[in-house]
Each structure stands twice: as structure tokens, then as C-alpha cells.
Design goal:
The protein is mainly alpha-helical. It has 3 helices and no strands. The chain has helices spanning 17-23, 39-52, 59-70. The protein is globular and about 30 Å long.
Length: 72
Amino acid sequence: AFANDLDQPFYLIAVTGSSNGKKSAYDPAEWMPPNSAYHCEYVRVWIDIKRAWDLSVDQAEHAYLAQKLASC
């Protein structure tokens, strides 16, 4: 259900196979989309998904998300 959540249209984003492979299972502290203009939106969606699914956030991920949001 999590991998195919279509309740929110921005949760599932079509990308190239290359981008998907590079992203793998990395969180934003480890990988961000190549389009820097999309970084703030990506972080906001990431946080929304974490909240919606009650997912944990590790310390490095939390620190990066906070730092990134502060610059948005």
C-alpha cells in the first residue's frame, strides 16, 4: 500500500530509470533530485509522506530536512 499510495497525486512521481536507480532507498540526507529548483518541494513532500505513514526519521535525516527547510 505504501509503495503505491495514490491518495495524494504528488506521492508517486514518474522519473527515469536512471534517476530511480540513483535515488535507490536513500533519504534526502543522502540523495536529492538533480533539479535543485525542486529541492524544497521534494523535502516538503518527503515530510508529508513520513507524517501520513507515521514513518521514523533518523538523526541525520532530521538534521538535513531542518536545514534544507530553513533555506526554502
